[in-house]
Amino acid sequence: MLLKYLPLWAPLAALAGFLAPETLAGLKATIIPLLTLVMLCMGMTLRPADFIAIKQYRYALITGLLLQFSVMPLLALACAKIFLLDQDLSLGLLLVGSVAGGTVSNVMTYLAKGHVALSVSMTAFSTLLSVALTPLLLTLLTGSHIVIPALDILQSLVKIILMPVALGVALNYFFHSAIKTIEPALAPIAVLTILLIISIVVALNQPHLYTLSLGIVFATLLHNITGLTLGYIGAYCLGFNSKICRTIAIEVGMQNSGLATALALKFFSQTAALPGALFSIWINMTGAIFAAGCIQLDQRQAEKTSSAKN
Fold first, then answer.
1. SS3 of 101, please?
2. How does pLDDT run across 217-227, given as a tens digit for each residue?
3. Cα–Cα distance between 237 and 244 in angstroms, integer?
4. Over residues 65-89, mean pLDDT
5. Residue 243 has what pLDDT?
6. What gap in Å lies between CA 242 and CA 244, rounded to an integer?
7. What is the pLDDT of residues 106-153, one digit of tens each?
C-alpha cells in the first residue's frame, strides 16, 4: 500500500512540512540517523556477491558517471538560460549540476527495485571524482573557483553510506535466515523514513519558499526531471536492461543537493544556496514518484507474463 501510493504520500509529506515547520524543523538532527537507517535496510537486502557482480556492470557504472558529469551541468546551464535566472541563482543551479550523486539516489534505487549495489558504487565513485571535477566544471562554465572539502565529503560517504550498507550486508550474510523473515518489512520502513525526511526538508526550507520566484522553482524541477529522463534514455539506447536503466536514471538525476547548498553558502551567497535547497525537495518527491512508477510497471509486466503462461 505504501509503495503503491507513494506518488500521493510524497506530496502530502511535503505539505505536512510546509504547514508544520516549527514541529518538523526541530527534527533536523535526525536526518542523518534516518538516512543511516535506510542504508542499513538496503544493506540487509544485499549479499557480498552483489558487489562482486559489479565487475559485470562496469560499463553501466562508467556510463552513469559520464552522463552525470556531462548531462547535469549542461542541463543546469540550459535551465538557467531558459528561465533567465540572475547570476547568483545561476551559480547555485550550476553548482547543483556539478556535484556528485547523493544518498537519496541510493534510497530511491532501492525503492524502485533497481540495482542497489551498482547505485552505491556509482555514488562512491562520483563522490571521489567530484573532488576534482566539480571545481573544474564550475571554472569552465562560470569562471568561479571553489575548493571542495574532500575530507569532509569522504567522511560523510563512509559514515552515511558505506558503513551502514556494509553492516547490513554482514547481517544478511551471517544471519540470512533471520533477515529473510523481516525482509518484507524493510521496504515499508524505508518508505516511512523517506516520507519523514521529505517533511523535515520542506519544514527546514519553508521560510525561503515564500521568497522563491517561479523561475527558480521550475528551473530546478526541470533540471531534475530532465536529468532522470535523459539518464534513462541514454542507458536504454546503450542496451542496458530496465533495472540498470532506472538505476542510472536515478543516479544521474539526483545530485548531492545538500553539498551544493553548503558550498553555495560558503563560497557564494544565501541566494545561490536556494537552488540546492529547492532541488533537495524535488528529488525526494520526484524520486518517490519515479520509484512507484517502476514498481507498478514491474507488477503489470508480471501480470502479463502470468496471463501468457495461463
1. strand
2. 999 999 999 99
3. 12
4. 93
5. 92
6. 5
7. 888 988 889 988 888 888 888 888 878 888 888 888 776 766 666 776
Q: Which domains does the chain have, with CATH numbers?
A: 6-297 (1.20.1530.20)
Cell reading at 170: 554482514
Q: How confident is the model at residue 75 (pLDDT cuts 50, 70, 90)?
A: very high
CA 55 centroid distance within chain? 23
pLDDT in tens, 264-279: 877 777 788 888 888 8
Q: How many Å apart are CA 269 and CA 92, to the nearest integer?
A: 9
Give me 215's grid cell. Answer: 523561475
Largest Cα–Cα separation, the chain: 63
Range list of H helices, the chain: 6-19, 21-25, 31-43, 48-52, 58-82, 87-98, 103-111, 116-142, 150-156, 163-174, 176-209, 214-237, 242-253, 257-267, 270-309
Record the cell numbers describing residue 112, joined without a space: 524502485
Question: Under 8 Å CB-to-CB from 173, ≥6 apart: which residues?
Answer: 47, 48
Distance CA 142, CA 3 (A): 41
Q: Retrieve residue 70's grid coordinates.
A: 556531462
What mean pLDDT value characterizes the chain? 85
DSSP-assigned letter for residue 54: G
Bridge partner residues of 101 (DSSP): 255
Mean pLDDT of 72-98: 92
How far is C-alpha 284 from the chain's CA centre?
A: 7
What is the C-alpha R_g of the chain? 19
